[in-house]
C-alpha cells in the first residue's frame, strides 16, 4: 500500500500573524519532529557518560540532563551524517533500543548547552573522531 499523503502534505503551517505562543509551539513541534529522524542514532551510552561528566563538573540535575541530551543529539547528528544511505534507520524498526520517552526534553537548556557546555563540546569532538564503521558495529 502506498501512503495517501506525504508528511509535508500533513504538516500544518501557521500564519505569520499568529500569536507568539502559537509560533513558539509550532517551532518546538518542528524541532521535536526533526529529532524523530535522529532517534535510531541516539546512543544512551553517550547520554549517560555526558550526564555523569556534567554532574562531576558541578551541574545541577536538570542542567546535567540537558547537557546529556544535547551531547546525545550532537553525536546522533554526526552518526546520521556518517550514514548517508540510512542503513541504521532501515534496521531501526526491528531493534528500536531507544524509547521515545527517553528523548530530549528541555529545548532551551539544550540549546544553551549546545553553545556553552564543555561536556557537549567534548561529546562533539568524540563523535567527530568516531569512524563510521565503529558506529555501525555498535548498532548491530
Walkthrough of the structure:
This is DUF6545 domain-containing protein. InterPro entries: DUF6545. The chain is mostly helical and 140 residues long. It has one domain. It is built from eight helices and no strands. It has helices spanning 7-10, 20-36, 44-56, 61-81, 87-95, 107-116, 118-129, 132-138. The longest helix has 21 residues, at 61-81. The radius of gyration is 17 Å and the shape is flat.
Task: Give me some keywords for this one.
140 residues; mainly alpha; 8 helices; disordered N terminus
Arithmetic mean pLDDT = 79
What does the radius of gyration come to? Answer: 17 Å
Q: Element order, helices and strands?
A: HHHHHHHH
Separation, N- and C-terminal Cα atoms: 29 Å
What is the count of β-strands?
A: 0
Helix content: 55-70%
Structural class: mainly alpha
- Outline the low-pLDDT stretches: 1-6
What count of helical segments does DSSP give?
Answer: 8
Main β-sheet description:
none
The total domain count is 1
What is the global morphology? flat
Content of β-strand = under 5%
Offer a quick outline of the entry:
Residues 131-140 have a biased composition (Basic and acidic residues). The protein is mostly helical.
SSE inventory with pairings:
Blueprint: H1 7-10, H2 20-36, H3 44-56, H4 61-81, H5 87-95, H6 107-116, H7 118-129, H8 132-138
Pfam families: DUF6545
Biased composition (Basic and acidic residues): 131-140
Domain DUF6545: 16-114
Amino acid at each position: 500500500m502506498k501512503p495517501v499523503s506525504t508528511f509535508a502534505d500533513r504538516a500544518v503551517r501557521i500564519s505569520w500573524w499568529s500569536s507568539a505562543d502559537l509560533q513558539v509551539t509550532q517551532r518546538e513541534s518542528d524541532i521535536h519532529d526533526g529529532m524523530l529522524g535522529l532517534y535510531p542514532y541516539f546512543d544512551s551510552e553517550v547520554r549517560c557518560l555526558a550526564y555523569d561528566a556534567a554532574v562531576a563538573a558541578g551541574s545541577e540535575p536538570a542542567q546535567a540532563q540537558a547537557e546529556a541530551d544535547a551531547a546525545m543529539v550532537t553525536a546522533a547528528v554526526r552518526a546520521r551524517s556518517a550514514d548517508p544511505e540510512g542503513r541504521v534507520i532501515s534496521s531501526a524498526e526491528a531493534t528500536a533500543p531507544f524509547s521515545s520517552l527517553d528523548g530530549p526534553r528541555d529545548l532551551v537548556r539544550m540549546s544553551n548547552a549546545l553553545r556553552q557546555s564543555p561536556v557537549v563540546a567534548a561529546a562533539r569532538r568524540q563523535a567527530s573522531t568516531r569512524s563510521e564503521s565503529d558506529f555501525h558495529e555498535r548498532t548491530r
